[in-house]
Protein 1
Amino acid sequence: MYTSETVHRYPRTLIWSIEALCTIVVAISAINLGSVILRYAWSNFGLDQALFLRVPFLVAIVDWIQGPPGQRRIDELTELLPTLWWAAIALLLVILVRNALPTVRTNSQGLLVEFADEWLPIPWENLRAVKVTGDIAGERFVILVQTDRKKLTGWHRLYSLFYRLGWRPGFWVTSSISDFDNLVKTVLSESKRIAHLIDNVKPVQLDEGAPSPLFRFMLGPASFFSQAKATKNNSDNTLTLPDQAMYGEQSAAYAGPVQGVYPARITTLLTWSIIILAGLTVWQYLLYWARFLALELPLIRGVPPFSWVFAQAAYVELVNAYRTNPVPFFGVAGRPDLPQPWWLLISAHLLVLFMIGVLMTLRGLLPTLEARSEGLAVRNLMSNHWFVVPWSHFATFKATEFSEHSQVLLLQIRNAALPWHYRLNSLLYDGSFSRGIIVTSAMDNFQPLLQRALFEVTSIQAKRPPRPNDPPLLQQEARSWLLWLAFMTGAALDQLIEEARDDVKNRAIQTAPLLRAAGSMTWLALPLPLLLLLDMILLRGSVPGLGVFLGAIGLWLVSMLEWPLVSLVSVLLDETGGSGGEEGYRAVYLYPAAQLPRLLPWIALLTLLVAGVPLLLLVVLWIGALAWSFLLAAGLWEKLYGWKGSLSLLGGLLPVLWQLITLLILLLVQR
């Protein structure tokens, strides 16, 4: 019988990181809420300046809270509601995140789960389900332990809700907790023991058939976009070119169409992303018109949504200058920094065009496919229209393999058989601009459909004379470094370094690999200049001058400096405190490629910036990009140089520090 008590805790660094994050969120929410309440109090009851001469820095603090001279006054209590709403959401998230990874104690009576610095008892007979989600390698897990409805607290229902839209109370356990395997074995064995002793109690089972889409994605996007398990007829997903001597037999086997459809977890994610972004776009478009009409029609300025224009200091200054008259259509003479009504309409339609491109790209990102005798039929998400691409138009099949059951392919075509936005698929995959279709192994009938496509294309190529410049049809080594590094960072870094070490000459500076690295760094340096341009062209409401474009070019050059500075500093650190400079200048070639995945959160940030999401979410994405940059750099130095401890930490902080400096320059340019 199990009698001893065991305590299972998470690593201190993980818990301290969560505590620090929660503290920062609470502090920011409190400062924001406090400043709004003080502005309301000062607007209605006045500001006592008696302490200004006695307390240092008090004037500066008050000026910061009050904002710029044109800042709108807060006169009504109802105007505090948006800030109160966001503060409540922040506190709710803090409560959930702070208690998401509790310490767990086990004994002969049951479990003790920590929540809000208290212990909640759960007898063994009150356990109802143990659901597990694992990564693609089977090394990391997240488990949801669910109990009777009267156990735990109402907050714990939200953990089941986030896990898989359940409503039974539960708590999470991850594989990073101490003695994870024994904890799971204890839960299962004790539940089985109690079931033998007490009637009407069923032992819980480890349920691997209901994984959490959220945690499956967080544990590794490669797992989210891979097959749940290999089927009997699809146990080997390795693609090979068909045997030309067996064309007749294979042609008979491929008599009918083969259709590939993605599972609901993927189509639902993409569908709701499109719906939300489309809704935000329509809302932003209407707000631009509201701003325009509020400036041109003074009589409606006090009516929502036209009154919302006064939330920005520049619009307040305009309205104060033209209280009873419309603002000049082409703007105020001599004040190009103020919003201009005509440019608001231009910006609104540029915003719509930008978002249409984003939405069309999402619709065609992972389409339904059907291999037919005449070609590959493509149907976009949320569409009933099929595009048929003749087999003769296909040029290459580029493959990136994450694992035995997780692959991504890019099917590139030669001409305009598909809409223009399919060029963005190739751009995402490997930076090329040909029209292409991205296919992942999460698709049903993935292997039969691709083998059918390979058979059809090779059979056509066999009937015509070979072309000297034709690339190989199936390119197993044409990997997408962006996707591979994002989904399988460790394996991708190992391969990247191994390929660099195969060439001894890479220890010195060479022109060809240097130009390839410069190409990757060109993309990495684009986000901040694009952020400046999108802000000045679409969001400010005023015509951008030549200085904005010159500033964007200068910001791009400053961002490019990250490459030589970080990589050369790493070389110096390795010579003095690492391996003694055995790797030479390989870091110069490897660093840009290793940092490519940080483009993904930046793409999301720029899209959501244009869509008008709250600033807090944009800050979270920016912090995520910095954190990913740190992890990628630290992983590169660890695998390339063997750095550990403080040296690895310093190496990971190098790109973060430079990106913070670049962001500071951006803020100065925007002033």
Note: Residues 12-45 form the longest helix (34 residues).
Protein 2
Amino acid sequence: MVCPLQTEAHLISNTSYPSEEELFEAYLQGDIDYQTYLNLVEIFEAGLDSSDQYLLNEIPGISYLGDVYIEDYLGRGKGLSDLPGGKMKNIGVSGSIKIRRYQEISEGGLGKNRYRFKSSTISNWSWDVLVGEDEDGRREWTKRLMQYKSRRGWLRKLVIGNFTAHYGLGLTVGYRGKLLHKATLPIGDSPLFPDFGGFNGLSGEIAQGHTGLEWFLHYDQDGQYRFRTAALNLKTGYKKWKGEGIFLGSVIQNRNTKQDYKYYQGSVYFQYRDSAFHSEMEMAFPQNTAAIIPAIVMESEYRTEPIKLGFYGWHYDRDFKNLTGGGRSGYYYNTVSIDTIDFSFSDRRNGQQGFLVRAIASLTNNVEYQIAYSPYGENRYERAARMSMSLEAPLSSVSRGKLDYKYKEENKPDGVVSGNELRAEYRLNLKELFLRSYLGYEVDRYGKNYLSYFIKGKIFIIKPMAIEVWLNFDKINIKNKILDYFYGYIREDINPLDNFKIGLKYSYRYNRNNLDHGQSALLIETEVRW
């Protein structure tokens, strides 16, 4: 179960990808909730391909008002297929074993290990296993997955283990992180219920021509609740049109009282796509609802040189319970209670409605201007609006500059509060050097002024060696000249052989609000590939 926190994500820049340690620090401070933390960790660990880019839409403050620079994650421009976990051609047998040791540098500092095994074969099968070990030496399966994928034949996909699923626009079946608490399990039970934010069980897809059927079974439990769900998705297409009919059934059981809560939901999804325009819409119809349209999500984009226009709208009835679905929404988190089984969970969509409009104009071949506006809110009394503008242009043949301005306004019962943020960014991309830096100025809702400075650099000294530096000075109080938060590291990667890699990383974190203000850590990572 996730924490019902409102998400501001001050420490997570729209285009800065923090390390896992920095993400956890943001979670501890309440800047992101546990669900968002799990989503981000999975993305950074497994990478993205075209089938799961929608995960980015689930993260407040990352892709909501502005495009995400995927290449910044790796340090230089690459396509999605080059990201870890991206789509690659299967040539023979390939795989990797990675061992990571994280150790806090202090007396009695905590340490943990992580072991990962990934492999794929020419027969379209792949394996992904991740095992974590805590400071007491207790091991737990964090992830285990066996997957078959093929573009030919009637069986297109078969997944056994834990996975993500996304039907339509994700309104009925999407990705939402863990619904239940992380269970304290004996070692023997760990493979059955790994600490993972997706679905756990069995998934598959069969297809013939333009018609296909997707399905999945999910089973999870913690010390108090058991969660089971199943879904079917019938999809078909004709020329520029695609359609899906989705049905889902879930049962949550209180293991102490043996009482069940049963939830059923159906939805329809339509898509139209041509060279200049595409539009998608999904409507969901859960059980026991009086609303004509309980939930609807719509996305439309029109592209013509030199302009791209986008409209994204959403409406979720206040009685809409979103146990497994995704979809767009604003930033509010509500606690939804199911009294019959004494169960509650955090939901970003219950009672939400709003829209987002965005325009991107190429002023010249290399200069781009973007503007976005989004009003949203959970009711007519508490509403918010965000506006974002950016201008990006080349400074030389190997560097680019960008100016960003963001404005947020919240209409609360006790008044209106607002905040502003201005950022200047510089990026340099050479063959042996990648550098990205920005200077930000923010006036928050309380009228406090802050500066932030970020720099990331990666240099390839000689062929088998690369050094990366990350410095994030966040929230420097201008009036008091006080630094609230800093995270930095220096990392060295050595590839003595084509299939062998060693990584060393020293990091230091300062947080003025913690009792232990400063903390340093050492990470050692080895990887063997074949």
Note: The radius of gyration is 23 Å.
Protein 3
Amino acid sequence: MLERGARLSGSLLLAMLVVSLLPISGVGGAWAQSAGGGEATLIVPAVSTSGEGVLGRLNIRVEGGSGRVYFSADPLTQLDTQSAARTAALVACSLLGVDPSKYDFYVSMESDSMVVGGPSAGAAMAVGMVAALANLSLRSDVIVTGMVNPDGTIGPVGGIPDKLRAAAAGGARLFLIPAGQEVVIESRVVEERGPFWVTRRLVREQVNVTQLGRELGVEVREVMTVREALEIFTGWRIEREVAGDVSLPENVRSEIASWIDSYMEAYRSASAEAKSLLAGISSRSLGEYVAQALSLADREARGSEDLLAEGRVYSAASSAFRAAIEADRARLVARMATADSPEEELLSYASEANGSLSSAEAALSSLEPNSLTELEVLVGAWERLYDAKQAMAQAESSYKEGNLISAAEWLCYANWRAKTAENWASLRVSGGPPPSRAGVYRVASTMVYEADSVVGYAATLLEEIGAQSGFLDRALSSLSMAKMAEDDGRAYAALGLAAEAISYATLSIHGAFATADPGSLAGAVSEESRWLISRVMKTGAVPVLALSYLEHAEVSESQGDLTTALLFYELAATYANLDSLMAELQPPLEGPPLVSPAPTETPPSQGPTKRPQPAEFDRAGLVAMGLLGFFAGAAVTLAITRSRRGL
């Protein structure tokens, strides 16, 4: 089941996206145009299998190619080191604004000692790849350790004191570590000698690596991003200027505001009916369930009004959207709880939801974008349609298991998500260069490949530490749908689903490894997202989705909901990166069709079709099960109807 509105455990999380498309000026000549390449070598620290810090040599060569990353190590290292090389290549290409599918990367690591595998050389790989691509010189007295995250942030690693000692012995003058790891825990063996024996015990103690560095004659500096590390290594700074008003234009705001009216009207109608039915519900648990849904609907409706008064149109629409879902859920369950045949009520609603999906698919299938702005909007619409289809599949699964409340919840979400897909498809706003069909197909293929790499990297890292993440589950689901959409020729859907997969996979990594101060990261990610969107706007395009997500992130951050803020900052920057990739493409030859020639009906498997035994679904049985939603199904309710995913 897709996870929605999940909370990261542990520290508050925020991160900065560095997925820019910034052309190099004054550096390295015409490397970007010629799709050439270069070489770079860095000294990297590691921990040997005996527990000592050692230094190795990282050699990188970049050539024109087809987007492959080749990795070798002597001695051999573990899989997460190899996965880090692929992620580093994606980050390096994003920083320099080049298409990763035009290059091949050759990475080799050499060490005199058998080292413990891990992703701690990821940041060094990314810096080296940028240097090789742009023909930049690297300082030889600087050493960096840190994991590379898909959004360009540098994640925490282990063994920093041992690596620092090795760096000092190797002549380093500056040692870069991930932000938040100035004080770490070090394990060491202490020997205690008695008259006849020696006792050894493992002691864990705090180490301030900045102070340790002073004692060793090495400056230790924290870095948050590959961008920062690159500037230290090369002296070259990637400027981030935000020009103009980075917000939704008035015509788009007016259109979205009209959606709010329809959502609020649906909320009021459904709430009124649910309240009228509430007195007739004999089951206390079901009555409380409906009352709770109505309370949530009212809260979202009030939130929508407040946000609209503040001029936060997209966030207001998202709250109105959730209010409509909550009220519809309350009404459907109230109908089922007071009907002679709850199953018939559910199946009737399933038919309505299927109609919404079919209508949305027909509308989307007939559209072709004439500008970059129209392309982004269509991508968002298709992503929402696939989200609705996934919810329908979940509804069917719950129905077959006899869990009517879960089926009702998923059906309500599917119905309204399909309506939002049609809303976005109806948005009429243009701007920016016209996309080519083959260009869209090519970028979709690149994005799905990147998503596959990022999700695989996240899965490897989390498996290494035995962590689980609902965000990773969501990333895997989005990736699966993206691949399916690509295979079906639905390039627009593949683009949006790949962007989602990348964002959720990155969240899963930050959830498992975050150490940096959330306040500092909040400011950094906000600045980065705005800069990326600003770059897209310079092409004449209006990145509607990216601007909407940015607004929602800012609202969530102001409300203290940093998890949701991080999600929407990630989505804003990922969509801005997608827009930039499309803007950079020259119109190539025609490619395969992006959509099927005619809209398809929602297949029977998308909705409830199997009729269970009647005895399981009479009113008494429904009450006995408690619809499995008021108690055991609370997580499902939270995942769907209290979603912070937005409109």
Note: Residues 1-35, 586-643 have pLDDT under 50 and may be disordered.
